[in-house]
Every structure is written in structure tokens, then in C-alpha cells.
Amino acid sequence: MSKPSQTKYLSPEVVSRLKGLEIKARLVVEGFIAGLHRSPYHGFSVEFAEHRQYMPGDPIRNIDWKVYAKSDKFFIKEYEEETNLKAYLLVDCSRSMAFAADGRIDKLTYGLQLAAALSFLMLKQRDAVGLVGFDEKINTYVPPRSAASHLHVLLREMEGFAATEKTNIASTLHEMAERIKRRGLVILISDLLDEPNQILAGLKHFRHRKHEVIVFHVLDPKERDFSFPLEAIFKDMETGEQINTLPWQIKRDYQRIIGAVLDRFSRECRMSNIDYVPIDTAMGYDLSLLAFLNKRSRLY
User: Fold this and answer.
1) Which domains does the chain possess?
2) DSSP-derived secondary structure letter, 165
3) Could you tell me the pTM of the whole model?
4) Which of 126, 159, 125, 164 is nearest to 142 (CA)?
5) Which of the residues 30, 94, 135, 206 has an alpha carbon 20 to 30 A from that of 52?
6) Rg of the chain on CA atoms, in Å
């Protein structure tokens, strides 16, 4: 992969700031053993992922003696199941995610940069990461893998993401909740501009199946404060419907409604033991992520 495609969503500067941080599962997940990355499925058929250098304390039975015969160095065979957890990044690619105001980054690009940083962190600690891109339906599905080389696969897939279709968040949540058999970590990155009742039902479907869930709610500042000047024409990015209005006349009602929606997501996610993280695209995604991880490390 060429250098530009590697750094579009994950710059070297951000990588340097993220080093040393880890995202840890807060709830018990299948396959997690504190401090270890050994498979609980020993004896079953698992997929080979890659070699890594032998470290003191590693089981001698895992040494690849064929590699030793060729290189005179000890290397350990690692398999797909030898991981803390399996994580799934669900990225909303609906048309509303293309919104950006005042020259800021659009929500989809922001979300993909966030997804790239999370992928880097989790693969760094040898967790398996999968990727889902969706709008009305699932368009991209990359199964979780823990090999370091998997980061290039994820970044390459992200390059093809585009905000082009309408939204149906809930259908993707329910489909993935049924598809994922082993308990793990589900991370949703979305503006949540869909029916709240249905979104919350989809999120609770994951919790019913014992997955840990994190929701990054990405919005442009204009979508929160509605600070538009003078008369304006507002166009629905998904339906094309337009209305003319004086923003100052409806600003207070808009802020009340959007505030109630955000409060509801926050309250119901908290009650369901779901991490709800509101994010403003005016703040660098790396700073938002660092703040979240620092808070998480203090709490858990």
C-alpha cells in the first residue's frame, strides 16, 4: 500500500500521541484472560495469524522449530483465537455523515479517522478488529483478525467508504447482533440521525447478547447549537426535502429538541451499561479519543 493511503486516516503524528495507550474491555468477554493472550479453545482448529519473537515465559510448545532451524532464532506461532477480545467497528456511511459546516471536516471523515486510531490501538495490544460500513444496509464487512498486517486491510477498506445513501441504523445493529456469535466489543460510530427508539433497541440487542458496547455520537457543532445567520434554506441530505426559515425564530425550540434527544441517548445508554461518547467535530478526533481513554482508564 502506498504511503498516502496509509496516512489518510492515520497520520504519523497521531500514532505518536496514541502510543502507550490501550483500550480495554470493561466487561467480561469470551476469550479474555487478564494479562494473557492465550486461547481458551486450546485443542480446537484455529487460524494461524503470524509469528512473533519468543519472550521469556511463553510456552515452549508454541515455538516454531522449523523457523528456528532456518534462522537460529525462537519465534512463537500465534493464532486468530489468541486474543483478548474480538472488536467490531460499525461506521455509519449514510448521506447525513457527509455534513460539514464552516470549513470543518465532515462527520464521515472524522469517524473514519477515529476508527483508524481505534484499530491501531487494539491491534497494537493484539486484539482482533473487524470493520463494518453501512447505510441502509451493510455494504462492507471485514471479519476480525489480530495480525498486525490487518491494519493495512482495514485502512484500505476505509478508503472506499462514501456517504451516498439513506440511513437505517437499527437494521444493521440487529443484523450484526445476530451475526456475532462470540461475546466481544462493539463500537458504533454514527451521527445517530435516525429513529432513537429503534437505535436504542438495536444497541440493547447487543447488550442482551452480553457484548460490551461503545457509541461515539459524532455531530457537527452547527447540529448542536443551530447557529445559522439570517434567513436560510435547509435541505435534508437524505430525502432532498427543503424548507426556508429564519433560524433565530426556531433556534430555541431546535436546541430544546436536540438536547432532549442527546439526554435520552446518554440516560438510556447509561442504564444499559453502554458507553455513550458525544463528540464534536470541532475538536481533533485524536484529542477526543485521548480524553475518552484517559477517563475510561480512571473509571475502570
Assistant:
1) 3-24+84-299 (3.40.50.410), 48-79 (no CATH)
2) B
3) 0.78
4) 159
5) 30
6) 21
